[in-house]
């Protein structure tokens, strides 16, 4: 599975990117990167599925940007949680105290805490990374803030019998009024890439800005690419087809290079629905002369996001560069 979650809230719709949420919504106020971030009030949360099968132990690496505009950080509220049993039971969590100590938990039992930390200032973004490995012995709870390790625990991290309590979802939760979340990622340990620390992630979104090499779908009005370039998406203009294997490719806007940053992934996110019957679509990109197609995704009559991750360039299998991304085309295919 490898990359499970990539979310910068750049679609501009709170209902579009997290799997479920409570309160507040996306905002253009002070994003860490891009145009949007999640703006939350006390106790509100954003959450994503990370389902483990019964009897399957969990191991995850993740990261997220977090900013608080209060003068005091920390409270009795958990900041991050892994939940089990239909989202009810807490299997693992961490909490930031008003003393600026970070505390990690097995279930709701404290297992280790940091010294007071210097990072948490009003209106200042920090980037949390974490590694949680669920086990009776040899489990891991490691937390980094802005790249520096502040918690490093090895031992018992499994609260109960995993057969009856498989991990189902993870939450990022407000610890004070008026906090912001941005640049959220979650990896598991599987696969050849995106299976370890994500680094201090910065997500940039680009949208179609012209026709690509293939134009086969039908627009509701105007040019095909102009029907799929708006943020937030409206659902009032779109492209469509009932012919299997018809597809569009679009020229894409260019991201802003960030110094010596390593490009870890290209994530194509589209939004699709059926008007009736059954059907699927697949995301597709073209790099150089090579087209690469994602897996078929079944659709319903409700709009839903389709996400495909390319950690390497399909044209040769090497790392992405700013130049290859500038030339990238992206689209979707009827399946």
Write up what this structure looks like.
The model has no long low-confidence stretch (mean pLDDT 91). The strands form 5 sheets. Strands 1, 3, 4, 6, 11, 12, 13 and 15 form an 8-stranded antiparallel β-sheet that branches. The chain has a 7-stranded antiparallel β-sheet with strand order 2-5-14-7-8-9-10, with no helix packed on it. Strands 16, 19, 21, 22, 23 and 25 form a 6-stranded antiparallel β-sheet that branches. It has 2 domains: 3-188, Jelly Rolls, CATH 2.60.120.200; 208-334, Jelly Rolls, CATH 2.60.120. The chain has one helix at 322-326, and strands at 3-7, 20-22, 25-27, 37-40, 45-49, 59-68, 80-84, 89-96, 102-106, 109-113, 126-133, 139-145, 148-155, 167-173, 179-188, 208-215, 218-219, 239-240, 247-252, 266-272, 280-287, 290-293, 297-298, 304-310, 329-334. Helix content is 1%, strand content 43%. The chain is globular. A hairpin with a 4-residue loop joins strand 7 (80-84) and strand 8 (89-96). By secondary structure, the protein is mostly beta strands.
Q: What helical percentage do the residues reach?
A: under 10%
The first-level CATH class name of the largest domain? Mainly Beta
What about the largest sheet?
8 strands, antiparallel
Number of strands: 25
Mean pLDDT: 91
Spans where pLDDT lies below 50 across 5 or more residues: none
Give the SSE order as H and E letters: EEEEEEEEEEEEEEEEEEEEEEEEHE
CATH fold description of the largest domain: Jelly Rolls
Total of helices: 1
Structural class: mainly beta
Name of the CATH architecture of the largest domain: Sandwich
Q: Quote the beta fraction.
A: 35-45%
First-residue to last-residue Cα separation: 22 Å
